[in-house]
Amino acid sequence: MTISDVLMVIAVICIWSLLLVNVALIIAGYLYYIQTESEGVPEIKGEYPFVTIMVPAHNEGVVISKTVESLLALDYPHDRYEIIVINDNSSDNSAQLLGNIQERNPQRNLLVINTDSVTGGKGKSNALNIGFARSRGELIAIYDADNTPERTALKYLVAEIVSDSSLGAVIGKFRTRNRDASLLTRFINIETLSFQWMAQAGRWKLFKLCTIPGTNFIMRRSIVEAIGGWDVKAIAEDTEISFRIYMMGYRIKFQPKSVTWEQEPQTVKVWFKQRTRWAKGNVYVIVKNLPLLFDRTASKIRFDILYYVSIYFLLLISLITSDLLLVLHAMGYVHTTIAGLSSFLWLLAIVLFVVGIFVTLTTEKGEMSLSNFWIILLMYVSYCQLWMVVAAYGMYNYLKDVIFKREAKWYKTERY
């Protein structure tokens, strides 16, 4: 075998190993969805626990009013939760809009914290720490500033966490509110359902593990106090805090019946900036937690560590290597005897990709359609390939931050 053949074989094995892991997660996730449909949500017995809902916001005037109004309308006893909006160093009309809502709801527990460039403006983690210092709840829920949770979202999260003392946090599901705005938002809608939520369901079913998203989740106050709050250096503060919860011996459960709707990027420019930020944040978490692979006390979370390492390093390198070799082979610069096999496996991977997503879409009303079939095919050859650029650029930005010792700051996603 030539060097090209060896490299191609290694790349194909890596890609297909991860692909089969994803297939296993989809199958397990689908079984979990069936299970949750039959079991329902636990009931809250006795007095409802007091909950603090925190909303970090930076220049969110376009969406913040709708978000707060939806939180005020939650199906949860109004005297058993408070809302803290951290209006973090905003230069738009957010403070005025939030003040108007306070005037219209004088009897409600709604606190607005307006920070400046000295106390705030240093990222979501810092904003959450500011809000937590003023909070009173025994449970802490987080919602992003563009979210409109369904009325039962909070109650379902609370019901799960109070029914099981082994749970440190419970996460819900977020859906794409503007999914029909553009082709990009249709891609994001499918990605959210398939690669985020079905994978979360599968990981809970198989390993009793979930990663906290950035929104629609609840956690115990005692945990935040024990870990000293959010890591201000972490851009992906949700993933980072998940690993710390794992290490405390708690589990994080996924309850798909708790749903919030959020706004997604409608242009490639905004999407690329958002996703490279996520990639950079996840690389930080990977590097920070890599030593846990050799820690006996972290045996239960090794799958998650290896999963993230595989996605952001192994898969990225393997995809770039295989694509590059196939292109060079077609141009006649290198010769590989397994190019035909690689092409066959590539086509088979597309089939598994489409089937896996269709299985996922069956769990959501209104998502099964012929138009979505073509969207999925187009998504594979376009949107999914952009992921390699996003991951590589995110890693590059992480290295720049390390070299130049730059602090975390707000990278606001454009709202509509």
UniProtKB/TrEMBL annotation:
CDD domains: CESA_like
InterPro entries: Nucleotide-diphossugar_trans (IPR029044)
Keywords: Glycosyltransferase, Membrane, Transferase, Transmembrane, Transmembrane helix
A Pfam family hit: Glyco_tranf_2_3
Tagged with keyword Acyltransferase: no
Transmembrane segments: 6-33, 305-331, 343-361, 373-396
Superkingdom assignment: Bacteria
Signal peptide: none
Keyword Transmembrane helix: yes
UniProt family annotation: Belongs to the glycosyltransferase 2 family.
Entry protein name: Glycosyltransferase family 2 protein
Species annotation: Paenibacillus tianjinensis
